[in-house]
Amino acid sequence: MNREELYAIAEKWFQDQGWKAFPFQTQTWTAFLQGKNGLLNAPTGSGKTYALWFPIVLDYMKKNPNYKTKHKPGLKAIWITPLRALSVEIKQAAERIVEDLELPLTVGIRSGDTSQSERAKQSKKMPDLLITTPESLQLLLASKEFAKTFANCSAIVVDEWHELLGTKRGVQMELALSRLKIVAPKMRIWGISATIGNLELAQQVLLGVNSEAYQNSVLIKANINKKIKVLSILPEKMDSYPWRGHMGLHLIDEVAKIIRRSKTTLIFTNVRSACEMWFQAILEKYPEFAGDMAMHHGSISRETRLWVENAIRNEDLKVVVCTSSLDLGVDFAPVETIIQVGGPKGVARFLQRAGRSGHQPGKESVIYFLATHAIELIEASALKKAAARTIVEDRIPYLNSWDVLVQYLNSLAVSDGFYPDEIFEEVKNTFCYQNMTKENWNWILNFITNGSQSLQAYDEFKKVEIEEDGRFKIHSRMIAMHHRMQIGTIVGDASLNVKFLSGGYIGSIEEWFASKLQPGDVFTFAGKRLELFRVKNMQVLVRKADPKKASRVVSWMGGRMALSVQMSELLREELYAANTDKLTPELIALQPLFARQRKESIVPDTNEFLIETFKTREGFHAVFYPFEGRFVHEALASIISYRISLLSPITFSLAYNDYGFELLSDQEIDMESVFDNNLFSTEYVHHDLQKSLNSTEMARRKFRDISVIAGLVFTGMPGKPVKTKHLQSGSQLLFEVFRDYEPDNLLLQQAYIETFEHQLEEGRLIQALERINRQTIVWKQCKKPTPFSFPIITDRLREKLSSETLAERIKKMTASYMK
Amino acid sequence: MNIIINNQDFILHQSGAVFWEKEKILLISDVHLGKVAHFRKHGIGIPNNAIFENFARLKTVLELFNPTTIVFLGDLFHSKINNEWNLFVQWTKEHSQKIILVEGNHDIISKQNYSDLNIEIFNELEIGNFLLTHHPTEKEDFFNFCGHIHPGIQLRGLGRQFLSLSCFFHKPNQLIFPAFGEFTGNSYLIPTEKDKVYAITKEGIIEVAIN
């Protein structure tokens, strides 16, 4: 069959559905059938699934002219999705094509939700088209004779590549692809990405630096422009607007009005606990919604989530309170309205959420922004500008993630083993490890074989063994089993399954939260009021609670998001506009707050850098306002407090948000000396950052994930009771042992590098300091906290930095006794 | 730091050891020897050098106090026998002090191993009106020395300052020892009005103010 005939088949199918293929779809078909690799830039709900399932199927028909009668078994294509929830939809799309074209192809899903028996069946006979996750793909690479499984695979599609890029799951994909290129030489590699700032780089990361695959690739853009309208939810009277972050519940009545007006509304919150609270609050104040309302977040059981997703599709629900768990993929045509509670921090995320509504072509997407505290309203007007100018962020890929490499090599070692020289070349061709030296490589090999020590007689380290012919292999069945259980790069706090005493799985909560509960305590989770019966074997057994009993809402740890560079710039622009007469509705609404701010202090202009100092019963506060986003403030707070601490012994507690940072101390901070000693200098930034104790604290937290990914902390199966307590150790403890006894360990060093590059963003920090140096410093000695300072000084998540001795500090501190 | 309990003098050392002056006994709890080797044996690459820190610490306190007897208050050896045991055997051969082990929950290796080294083993040990155990135990008319918990304390101060440290936890009739071993963690206790807390720093021991 020639290409024309194949296109005719595809186009006829589209006609039968009453559709017409978009140019980006036909372009993708052509490129694929020409044997090219590529990256397709297309938004959710645009028909991107058909842009790639079709050529995969057409290619099969082309190569097997008698496909209708003769079926060659074996894996033909892999579709990678970052979210298990999306796999059902992708499978349905594939099945639709296969059935309509009367092809004898089977479609299967393999993910964490796939049962043991199903997996075993698949291992014997792989489906023709397999939909899976990056983790499950790694697991396949960790099984015996995996090379055979993939040998005749003709395509791999990595969906939502933008979500993986810039995470360690992306690195995991890079490594898997480096292997698959060799074991499946005929395989085309395709990625699908939403719009991000660095699409060209995304393409290169997917395909490998200077690789043949990259040379033979294309970037196809769907260019579907969607109109997005951003509306702020403003109260009638601004007096009631809280100064600091809350849940935004004071606007619940306005939200209810919006819900009533539209068919289906999705309310996005930034964290799971806010999701739980909003659900409760609406239920209590507007019980009439009870039957048409649901909640969706990552810790709720899969059955419930699937039910909610289906209910949205079937238009059974009026309102769903959700988190980023509903960000991706799933196409919800009936959704009319989106409400975003709290700052979304990034433009891309916000636009993507906005895109969840108004799926009909040409229809405008409307998103309401609900600021949880007054200053967040500035974010709203910044977001409007972003949407108008379609500004989007870059996703920065990881470099030299040794933890992921260690895990990958162990995976290869539990499958058929590997020969280092062969794998070195493959790994070196990935984007992540392009700068890896032979020395780094040898360190990694030594780490997995000797536990990073040289061979010593008394040492009993055992993991990967080197066979006579030079093959690296894990022989111990127990170590292999432990490794398979731990494959993955998403590290969460240990979580416990929540179950009813009578049976029935509800979801999972984190261990630290469970540990705060006593039997009989009531908590709200998944929209239910539950009473704790007991915690046993990693299971939280509960029963329905007495509705009159007081309850607390489950909360989860989890990083806070920081404003992207693009957002911070827009935010500054908006704020500086406050002193002009070009006021947006949000800025007009904020006038009372600005008036209060000006009474005690100022609203800074473009050329002003504001510092406020004041005393409260907590101690002496100094608040700085660079408006550079949380991560930069974290670094600035770290470096400025370190420099001040060199002048005289002092201890600080540091807090920061997206607008500024605070140094809090029990002593008064000598501001004059801060200015006299030029403490905002850009000189020695790297040195000072490294020296500040704070970076150690951050590295310690980075090390937590690294140690789990590299297999130094054994966490066991998620939700399963751990029988290996004797092999558990806190990553805190590990960090200290490595710091004290093996400071040159690459994994430890990686923790510092990630701190400086990903967390502290040294580059952005220097730019920020340069900007501050060009500005006039305005130091206001205030009598009390200002509206600007309020959200920062009330933040309880803090870092510390001290140049006092431990003894001096202990003498000033106390332990409170049990009352 | 010197403290007096039941009219006897004791010296608390920042390593977590306590020297009983009159009896010339050195008390040590929760060394957890063999833990590093145990992890390594199971493919978890903890730095091997951490093993030697425990022996270095033992050397320091032995030279400082020159005791005639060493009493380990349990959890001396973390796991099943591994090569770290050989290092311990070597160590005992180089020392003439009498060694006693009060058994802890981690001490699961065969008692024969200890008796071969002339180490006496007790479930609990009474010396005068002092009761030495691994798990905190209350017995009328006795003051209890024990370990097991790995106590730590959390302090707070003006300016939202917080600190967490290992400590000796002194209850009216009990002294809970910190873990002596490297690569062991803490569990944080909340004192009552009647308790005293001695925090451990590298420079020395500091009594914590409680309010």
Secondary-structure topology with pairs:
The complex is a heterodimer of chains A (819) and B (211).
Chain A (H helix, E strand, L loop, with lengths): L2 H14 L6 H11 L3 E5 L6 H16 L13 E4 L6 H14 L6 E4 L5 H9 L4 E4 L1 H8 L4 H5 L4 E4 L2 H4 L3 H16 L4 E6 L5 H9 L4 H4 L1 E5 L6 E5 L19 H10 L3 E4 L3 H14 L7 E4 L5 H12 L5 E4 L14 E5 L5 H8 L10 E6 L5 H14 L12 H13 L5 H9 L9 H13 L14 E2 L5 E2 L3 H10 L8 E6 L4 E6 H5 L6 E4 L2 E9 L2 E6 L7 E2 L11 H12 L8 H5 L1 H10 L7 E9 L2 E7 L4 H18 L3 E6 L4 E5 L5 H6 L8 H7 L1 H17 L21 H11 L4 H14 L2 H13 L1 E6 L8 H4 L5 E4 L3 H7 L1 E2 L4
Parallel strand pairs in A: 1-6, 1-7, 2-4, 2-5, 3-4, 5-6, 8-13, 9-11, 9-12, 10-11, 12-13, 16-20, 18-21, 22-26
Antiparallel strand pairs in A: 14-15, 16-17, 18-19, 19-20, 22-23, 23-25, 24-25, 24-27
Chain B lengths: L1 E4 L2 E5 L5 E3 L4 E4 L6 H7 L8 H16 L3 E4 L10 H11 L4 E5 L8 H6 L3 E3 L2 E3 L2 E3 L10 E4 L4 E7 L3 E11 L2 E3 L10 E2 L7 E5 L4 E3 L1 E2 L1
Parallel strand pairs in B: 4-5, 5-6, 6-7, 9-10, 10-13, 11-14
Antiparallel strand pairs in B: 1-2, 2-3, 3-4, 8-9, 11-12, 12-13, 12-15, 15-16
GO molecular function (chain B): hydrolase activity
Protein name (chain B): Phosphoesterase
Keywords (chain A): ATP-binding, DNA damage, DNA repair, DNA-binding, Helicase, Hydrolase, Isomerase, Ligase, Nucleotide-binding
Descriptors for this entry?
heterodimer; A: 819 residues; alpha/beta; Rossmann fold; Ribosomal Protein L25, Chain P; 4 domains; seven-stranded parallel beta sheet; six-stranded parallel beta sheet; 17% strand; B: 211 residues; Purple Acid Phosphatase, chain A, domain 2; nine-stranded mixed beta sheet; seven-stranded mixed beta sheet; 4 helices; 17 strands; 19% helix
Structure, explained:
The complex is a heterodimer of chains A (819) and B (211). By secondary structure, chain A is α/β, with parallel strands linked by helices. Helices cover 42% and strands 17% of the residues of chain A. In chain A, the strands form 5 sheets. Chain A has a 7-stranded parallel β-sheet with strand order 3-4-2-5-6-1-7, with helices on both faces. Chain A has a 6-stranded parallel β-sheet with strand order 8-13-12-9-11-10, sandwiched between helices. With 211 residues, chain B is of the alpha/beta class. Helix content of chain B is 19%, strand content 34%. Chain B contains 4 helices and 17 strands. In chain B, the strands form 2 sheets. In chain B, strands 8, 9, 10, 11, 12, 13, 14, 15 and 16 form a 9-stranded mixed β-sheet that branches. In chain B, strand 5, helix 3 and strand 6 (98-102) form a beta-alpha-beta unit. Chain B is globular, with a radius of gyration of 17 Å. The chains are: A alpha/beta (819), B alpha/beta (211).
